[in-house]
Each structure stands twice: as C-alpha cells, then as structure tokens.
Amino acid sequence: MSYLEYKVQTIPSGARKILYANWAIALLLTAVACVGFLMLTSVAGGDFDRWAEPQMKRFALGFLVMLAVGMVPIWFWRNMAGLAYLGALGLLILVEFFGTVGMGAQRWIDLGFMRLQPSEVMKISLVMILSAYYDWLPISKVSRPFWVLLPVGLILLPTALVLKQPDLGTAILLVAGGGIVMFCAGVSWWYFIAVVAAGVGLVAMVFSSRGTDWQLLKDYQFRRIDTFLDPSTDPLGAGYHITQSKIALGSGGWTGKGFMQGTQSRLNFLPEKHTDFIFTTLAEEFGFVGGFSLLILYGLIILFCVASAIQNADRFGALLTLGVAATLFLFFSVNMSMVMGLAPVVGVPLPLVSFGGSAMLVLMGAFGLVQSAHIHRPRSR
Amino acid sequence: MKKSSKETEESAGLVTRRGLVLAGLQLGFMTVLGLRMRQMQVEEAENYRLLAEENRINMRLIPPSRGIIYDRTGVPIATNTQNYRIVIVREDVPDVDETIAKLRRLVPLDEDELEKSLREMYRRSPFVPVTLADRLSWEDVAEVAVNAPALPGVTPDVGLSREYPLGADFAHIVGYVGPVSDYDLSKLQNPDPLLQIPKFQIGKIGVETKLEAQLRGQAGTKRIEVNAAGRVMRELGREEYTPGTDLQLTIDHGLQNFAQARLAEESAGAVVMDIETGDLVAMASSPSFDPDLFVRGISTTNYRLLTENKYRPLFNKAVQGLYPPGSTFKMMTGLAALRHNVIGPGETVWCPGHMNFGGRRFHCWKRGGHGWVDLNTAITESCDVYFYEAANRTGIDRLATLCHEFGLGERFDLPVSAIREGIVPSTKWKAQARGEQWFPGETLNTAIGQGDVLTSPLQLAVMTARIASGKAISPRLIKSVNGIESPIEEAAPLNISASHLRLVQQAMYNVSNGRRGTARRSRIVTEGMEMAGKTGTSQVRNITAAERARGVVSNEQLPWERRDHGLFVAYAPFDKPKYAISMIVEHGGGGSSAAAPPARDILLYALYGGVPPLDAYPDDQRERIKTMLSELPIRPRQEPSKTPSRA
C-alpha cells in the first residue's frame, strides 16, 4: 500500500515539512532535557563539563536525528518496521555472545563513538512492528486468539532475551509497551483482564506458598520482596538506597534546598545520582515545585502525542505515536515510582534527564517517528 | 490489501477511543505519582528533613585542657605539654610498608606500639588518622616534617598530654592521670561523653582523681558534616571548651623536694604542717615513683618492680600508712590525766622499771626504772610506768575522747587518695570491731602508743600542731582554686587548760633541748628557733619474757622488716610555733636515732625557706651535716613560671 492512497493534496512536501512538525512536542522535549543539564551540573558538584556537556551534545545530536527521522515519510518507516525488529533481535542475540556487561547488568555493543544497548533499540522496534502488524491486520480479526498470540510471540521473544541478560527493568518495559500498543489497536478488554487476573492470582499463590512445603520462591527472594515492601527492615543493606532516596526526596519539602544545596546528593548518600536517581536530586534541591513541574512536562508530552494520534487517520502513525508516548510514560513512571519507594529498584533511567547516550538517542529517534507520523498524517478528515 | 474507507473510519474511531482511555490511565497514574510526591514532600517533609540532618551532621567533642596544679609559690607541678606525635592516613599512603621503613630510619618507633597502630589503621576507614608514634621529641617531629615530601600520608601532629615537671616528688600527693579504662567507665553512673574519646586522660589517684571534676573542664563541641562514608566534609559550627580549673596546693615544692631527697634512702613518711593556717607544706613518702611511667602506660616489668619492692613505693606512707604511735602518744595520755585531774601537774609516780597489773608485768623501756617521775620527766625521758599509771587512772574512754579532739582517729577531708582514719581504741570501739569487752590491761598498752592504737603521720602532725597552738587546727591542701584563695577557717580553741598544755609543751622542749632529753642530739641551737619534740619507737614484734630475760636483741641484729619503727613529732620555733612535723621511718630503729635527725633537717628547711644553715646545728655535728647536705640530690628552688591567679 502506498502513501498515495490517502488524499494527499494538503500534505506538505520538501523542506516545508519542517514547518509542519509538532513543535510543541519538540519544545517540551528540549525543556525536559534542559532540566537534565541543570541536574547533571548539580550532581557533578557544579562541574558542567563532567556530565552536562556530553549530555548536551548528545541531545543536540538526538534533536537532529529526530528532525531527520521526522522528514522521512511515515510509510517508509512502516515498511522498515519488520527489518528494524529483525535487526534489533539480531543485535540482542549478538550481545549475548559479544556484548560487554556493565553496571546494572545491561549489555551493550561498543560502536566506538557510543555504546549501543540493543534492548533500547528493541523497545522502539517492538512498538514499530506491532503498529505495522495492526495496520495490516483487518480490524475484524484483531481479537481472534490466533491473531492475538502472534503479537504476543513478537513481544515475548525479545523479552526472553533481555531477561537473560538479566535486565528485569527493560523486560517489564517491553511487555508493558507491547501490551499498550495491543490495547490501543483494539484487542478485546477480556484478554487484558485475564492477564491481570492471572498475574494477581500468581502473586497471591506465590505469597501464600511462603513457609509451606510447596514454596515457589527461595527464602532470599522473599526477603528481597520484604525489603522492597518495607525498606526500613534493612536500612543499611538492600533497603539503603530506597531509604536514602526517600529521605532526600522528602527532605526537599515545598521548594527544595536550592541548586547544589541537596545534602543527601552532595554527601553521597544517594547511589547512581547522575543516572537512575537523578529525580531524587531534583526533588531534593527544587522540592515539590521542581519535581511536580517535571511531571507536568512529561504529562504535556503525553497529551500532545495523544492529541496527535487521535487526529491521525493513519492507523500505523496513530498506534506508533501512542506506543512511543507509552514508552516514555513507562520510563518515567517506573523511574519515579522507584525513587519514591513505590516500586522496587529495577534500574530504569529517567528519560532525557538521566545521563546516558543510547537511551537518549533512541528516544529522540522514536520521537522522530512521532514527528514523521504527525507531518505526514492524512488531512482529509 | 486495500482498505475500505469505512474500515479506516472504524479503525480511527477505535484508536481514538482506546488512545483516550490510555491517556486517562496514564494521567491517573501520574496523579498518583504527584500525590505521593506531595505526601512525602509536603506532609511528611519535616520527618525526612530530620532524617537528612541526622544523616549528615555529627557532633564531635573537643577535649578541654586540664587544669594546671601549682605549688604554694606558683611553681607548676602538673602541666599540659605539647605531645608531638606522628599520624598516618592510610588512603594517602601509596605503600604502607615502604613508608614505615622510611619512618623507622628517621624516628624511634616502638615495635609493639607500631603493630597495634597498624592493626588499628587497617581496621578503620582509610581516611581516619591513626597515631603511629606518640610523645616524640621536637627534633624527631621536625625530622619528619622536613622529610614530608618523601612520606605522603604521614603528618606530624600535636596534642596535649599531662606532664609532671617535678617528677616523683609529688607522685603521692598529686597522683597521675591515665587513659580512661573500661573499669573507670563501669564505676560511673552517667559518664561524661568526653570519656569516650580514645586515650582521653583522667585522674587515676591523688589530687588528679579527687578533684577530677574541677580539673577536667567542659568539653567543647564541633558540628561537622560527614558524607555517607563518614568522611568529614567541613565544620559547621564550634563551641569552644571551658578549660579545667587551675589549683594551687599548700605544698612548697622546695620543701617537698628536700623532704623526699632527705628520706630517699629510707622507707619513710613525713608531714609538715603550718601551725597558724593548717597548710600542709610537705607530705613526703619515700621511696616514690615516677608518675610519668603511669601516664604513658606502665610496662608489666616496671610495675612489678614497684609492687615487689619491700619499701612499697606506691604506698603513700604520709596518709595511708598506719603505725603504732609509740611514745609520741604519751602527750595524749598525760593531757588526759591532767584534764581529768587524776594526776596533779607536779604529782610524781614511782617507776621501778615495771608495773604489775592484773597478773601481768608491764615493763618500762629502762630496765632499772626512772625512780620518782613527774610529767615533765616522764615525757622528757619517756618513762612508760608513769603513763601506765596515768592512763589507768583516766580510763580508756576519756583518753580516747581526748585523742579524737587532737585529731587522732579522725579522717581529714583532703583530696588525696587512700586517707585512713586509723584506730583510737575505746570500749565502744572494741565492742564494735571485735565484739569483745575491754580489758584494763589494754589501757596500759594504749597509754604508751602500743596495742591497738594506730595513727598516720598526717594525724600525728595535726596532733602536734594542736598541742603547739592549743587550737583545733585542721589540715589544708588546696591553697587556691582558679586564683581564688580558699578560706582558712578560724580554729576553735581546744578544751584544755593553758597551764596543762604549757606543761606538756615545756616537757617536749626538754625532750629536744634538755640535758636528758631523748632527742637532745637533734636539737636546733639557733636562738628563737628551738624545737620541741617527742621521740617514739614502736615495736612491730612482741618481746617475750624469755627474750627480755636474755636481753633484748638490738635492732641492728634483726632483719629489716622486724626492726622497730622510728617516730618523731616536733614543732618549732618553741616560742612562736610555726611548723609542726611528724616523721615515721619504717623499721628504722629508735625514734631518736632514725626519725629525729631528718625531721630536724626538714623543719629547718621549712623555717629558713631553703637548705638549713649549718649554724643551726650543734657544733660537733656541723661537719657531718655539711657532708650529708651536700650529697643530697636536691633541686634548686624554682621561680614561679607564671602567676597561678587568673584575675
């Protein structure tokens, strides 16, 4: 199928496309990234060069990538979806053998100028392939068991590879991200209800098995869960990071302790303060006002994406936009839940704010897809 | 595949519906996040803020400088000196072994200490400074400072440590300090947090421990910020310490030094007291020990040397030593008899050399007897029978009451360790202590200072001062606190008639100056300086009837620990009493030969404020005295280093 199937007379072409990009989203992304530069300067003790400067360069590169991807017609990306998925899958298999294991157990491939995490690429590729799949699938078949199992397979295959690394955080994001695309595509509620019910049942069974003969988890695994549920039981052990993170966050109060005045961050009570726990520093130094503002920025990005998607008659573009927005949502909500003690520490960075190259580039590329979908949306409706 | 327009419409509607549901769910979860943030940062912020402060702020104590102890002239006895030490910070040292090897070539390192320090260093965090060597000379520290570039991580450091510039002279009075031990802590209900500082010095014995509360001072505090690993980041605030209170003793450093030196060869104790004020101007106990050994932490070998010495250097003979007063007690017996009018002032008693009483024979030291003796002769020649009779007529309880009035059996409240009250026997005392009834024969033993009566040199000095003044003078050791003079209490007159007292004083004068006085050899010949005294010899063994028949073995023939104690009490000048002295020379033989001569020398030093002039001694003794004095290891008197008062 081709792009020309739609009524194309109002679709911009050539360099004029750039004027039709979703500048609101681009502006919001830049705002979030600027919060990142500020916080990276703060956690480096005022040293701009250490983390903020490389991060800024990467964002600039990512911004160009976004525009470049956005200029390319959306149907090209739809046609590339299968290839991207296979490529990402191949990379995931490749890192199993040749990758380097770093902190947080994520595997990457050193490309020389940057470290590429195939699992990051997979998050977007998965959203692409699923969007393309539902674009292709007639609506009447969407909820038929066979046509449901197929995308489930597409999701579980990379998830299994990522779990093997082992990277629980990314695995959860893959399943959730894929599930959201399926949900948006219109898969029957009952499937989701069944999965949630099965999950709750499994958790209930695991917990009720504790202390019995048929105990499903090892004792130490139970203890980890205990520590998550109540970090104060192990304040200097596994619960230390969560406890310190909550202390930092809570002690920020309404308006925070001021830029570079966060005692918890500055005195190294916080772990990974430039990556996974950067939100804690933000909340400590700028308080509820600072943390909530960032939440609103993210919320606006989601809203603009949803608005763009529901205006978009192109099924692929709409699903892709919703999928990318959902990926962003999953990133920051899991990260924030983690530092606030609502979720266990799984090692998910705060998108566009945490220090990290490949995550930022991949995310900006994904927003390039959103831009492409926005620019090239059919305007006949 | 070709899509119908209808299907496209339907699909777009579905995506819109599902997209809005999803957006709703996402916004819902973000609301949860926002509420959680609000709960933590607004409602519970105060809690978390407190936790964050607890995390980062530590309180550290600043040890105060200990109060300085001066003698009565302002010469420091206990001071704080710069203690030079070498400190190592492990994380700054590239190669510990190599650095230690280099250091070993520069300064003397004690192997045991070094091993202990290194173990501590590896146990603690790498940034914690650990002391490698302590109490180094300034030269050693300078050596390390000069070589600093070659010794990264090693720094010279300075702290305060107690020093006793007069060494052993004041070991028994002032005592010493030492690091707080677990035992010290276990004795305290609410220990000062200062005591938790490693190696913090507190008083262990003597004035140092008795007046610990005043000397210690108040700790300062500093609030410091620490990071997660406990490293000190910066100081947030500081409250300076209050230094300990300075004390001034009534002891004269020169006299004390002279007394210690004069008694160095003996196992002896002596107390010199100012009769007008009660000031203790010297309290000697010989042999003494070096308090510095204890400040550093004494080695087992050195400690055993001190404890196994039969002269008991660690024992403060001046206040802790209890001895039968022997004949020095006879003034008490005489005064009691006079007060109760059982023997008239001029009344005589027949001394045949013994007295039969209750089926036992009580001997006089003079086998042939003294003949008719009155009080004057009895004291001068130390006749025992006179006092047997006097005590027997007075009764033990009336005698005991008088003794207490003169300070015997009393515990004086002085800030020195191990003050003992001794024993003044009475019927009540015997019933309590032994559960037995008093036998009249015991009164006779008590009369001459034998039997159960036990006194310390301090008590004998007080007794002598009270005889000399007729007032209930109390001893005083602290002259001023922080430059403020301690008040001298006006002493109440004793309940003794002046004429009776005069009689005893005159007899004591005769002891020292009379033709037949037992201490005549130890008289002072300078006019206006004459001494009044009383010798005493206390047996430490029983003389059996058989031995007495054979002839009593002389002291020289006995092993040291079975010889008699020599005692002497005296005051001078006779006309205008200024100083009282008591002296005990353990197993020194007779009081007149062992105790009286050094007592005279010390008393003369006190009277003259320096080494006694030879013309105070009788002609025939001057040569010998001159040699003796010139050989004494005495220190020249010192000038006060600074005024002890802090106006």
Automatic annotation (TrEMBL), chain A:
Question: InterPro entries, from UniProt?
Answer: FtsW/RodA (IPR001182), RodA/MrdB (IPR011923)
* Keywords on record: Cell inner membrane, Cell membrane, Cell shape, Cell wall biogenesis/degradation, Glycosyltransferase, Membrane, Peptidoglycan synthesis, Transferase, Transmembrane, Transmembrane helix
An annotated GO BP: cell division
Catalytic activity annotated for this protein? [GlcNAc-(1->4)-Mur2Ac(oyl-L-Ala-gamma-D-Glu-L-Lys-D-Ala-D-Ala)](n)-di-trans,octa-cis-undecaprenyl diphosphate + beta-D-GlcNAc-(1->4)-Mur2Ac(oyl-L-Ala-gamma-D-Glu-L-Lys-D-Ala-D-Ala)-di-trans,octa-cis-undecaprenyl diphosphate = [GlcNAc-(1->4)-Mur2Ac(oyl-L-Ala-gamma-D-Glu-L-Lys-D-Ala-D-Ala)](n+1)-di-trans,octa-cis-undecaprenyl diphosphate + di-trans,octa-cis-undecaprenyl diphosphate + H(+)
Membrane topology of the entry: Multi-pass membrane protein
Pfam families attached to this UniProt entry: FTSW_RODA_SPOVE (PF01098)
Membrane is among the record's keywords: yes
Q: In which pathway does it act?
A: Cell wall biogenesis; peptidoglycan biosynthesis
A single cellular component GO annotation: cell division site
Q: What family name appears in the similarity comment? A: Belongs to the SEDS family. MrdB/RodA subfamily.
- Which protein are we looking at? Peptidoglycan glycosyltransferase MrdB
Native organism: Boseongicola aestuarii
Q: Which gene encodes it?
A: mrdB
Automatic annotation (TrEMBL), chain B:
Task: Tell me where it mainly resides.
Answer: membrane
Q: Which Gene3D superfamilies match?
A: DD-peptidase/beta-lactamase superfamily (3.40.710.10), Penicillin-binding protein 2a (Domain 2) (3.90.1310.10), Penicillin-binding protein 2a, domain 3 (3.30.1390.30)
The answer to keyword Membrane applying to this record is: yes
Which N-terminal stretch is annotated as signal sequence? none
List every stretch annotated Disordered: 627-647
SUPFAM superfamilies to which the protein is assigned, alphabetical? beta-lactamase/transpeptidase-like, Penicillin binding protein dimerisation domain
Name the source's superkingdom: Bacteria
Q: What is this protein called?
A: Stage V sporulation protein D
Coiled coil stretches, renumbered: none
Provenance organism: Boseongicola aestuarii
